[in-house]
Sequence to fold (434 residues):
Amino acid sequence: MQQNPMTVITEILPDQLQKLEAYLAPIGTDIKNNPVIKFSNYQQLHYCTFFVIPGKHPSEVDTGEPALLAFEANIDGDVKQFINDLLAGNPDFVNSVYSCCKDYPGNNASQLTDYLLKNDFGANAFYVAHPGQTRNTIVEQQQIRQRIQDYIDANRPALAAKQATEIHADIVKHLGTINKPAPQPFLNSMGQMIFNGLLAVLGILLVGGFFGMFGPLVEFLAVLVLIAGVAFAVVLRWNEMRDKQDDKPWVVSEQMEAIQRVEDRQLQNHLTSVIEIKPGWFRLTTLRVVLAGINLVAKLVATKGDLSGIVTIHFARWVILPGNKRLLFMSNYDGSWENYLGEFIDHASVGLTAVWSNTQLGKDRGFPDTQWLALRGGSRDEQRFKNFARNSQLAELVWYSAYIDLSVKNVANNRAIHEGLFSTTNLAAWLRCL
Fold:
């Protein structure tokens, strides 16, 4: 089953902001035991988050900007079905939240569904560590792994004297009837080949076009691409030379302290960043193209729990917010904030810089100096980059994870164990997974 992003963005009524925060904050403080909503009841839900994107007073900008409520969810299957289930299971919660927002349609399930769908901006780029792994599958495979571990612990002396085939047979017998795991999605096995094929076809067309191998039309298009590429590089470098990086240090504000207090309390963490897009059509268009490229890589290449060498991200998304002035980034990841940012710098600096070099924290507070979009500078300036990232972070009011004690590697390992129950090939490697 395909995983999908839901990103509902709604305008908060000015006089309802404090009421909304006061309602959501206790839920986030006790996500498991609060009496309002049990997110674990929604079996298609992997993660969800509620947070406020602060507005701007009219004195800061010409017209002012209202505060926005963001509702992020990573779900299995259809977004509309999830919304319908949420309204059926917790109508009071949904109405209490969205009655604080502009254009709230009232306590009518059908109209409220339409309202949420209308304000769902999905994602410009969306990464899933394990495509096709439903929330229920991940939980069930962890339970299988635990049952096997309990059996081994209880019978370790006897099992130690047996061959791998005998141990495998004993475990299979102990578990009884277990459903075979669903096959991997097509793109998991063929995505890299498709991606390489697309690059090869593009390369052949461009090279062949320059030498007139495919007729005048392709030759014209190849020359046009070359001219467009040169023009883009010139305009890009012209913009980059006028950018001013942010040299403001990370200030330990109350908001930053609140963010740090909830970090590293468990294996997983959540990061929310909202940042301004540099003004002008050129930066916005460049950002859209870069995000489209990242989305393509996420769909075809990064399908096995590895995003350009980063193996700690469960879900991530980039969303250009309504009005095309701000970029929202959200990530559910394993480990500490420091390690996470360090992995980005070490393994995905090009993609990271290509995105955020088009953003700024405010006038004259741009991303660390970058040359040629991503080839030099940018996130490689580690301290400035980390300051930039911290200063763009927002605190969440509510954050829920369906399997908060599992890492990306745990999920992959549990699937390998499950698949190995139905095969006797390479049992030594399978036993090492246990």
Notes: The longest strand covers residues 268-277.
